[in-house]
Give the backbone structure.
Amino acid sequence: MYVLGNFIAAIAVILGYIISVLTWIIIIRALLSWVNPDPYNMIVQILHRVTEPILAPIRRMIPMHNIGIDVSPIIAILFLWFVKLFIVRTMIELAVRLR
């Protein structure tokens, strides 16, 4: 069970890092939306390709045309924090118990 515990702990740590990186990418995209960047810039295109699969379902579920601002980045960040706090911590606790 020691090997399984280490494997689960490693997956939890990697998942935590991925969630942190995604959070920062969403923040950067939200900040860039304030300055109207060039849509043909390679970095802007990469940011849109990475974040759109996360933000598009939120925009479909919550219509934001009445609000006037896009709150989908805030909702996405809250969801990612929830995943990090709940799932990653649960996986780490499971890994500790399996050791």
Summary: Helices lie at 2-35, 42-61, 72-98. The chain has one domain: 2-98. The chain has a mean pLDDT of 91. Residues 2-98 form one domain.
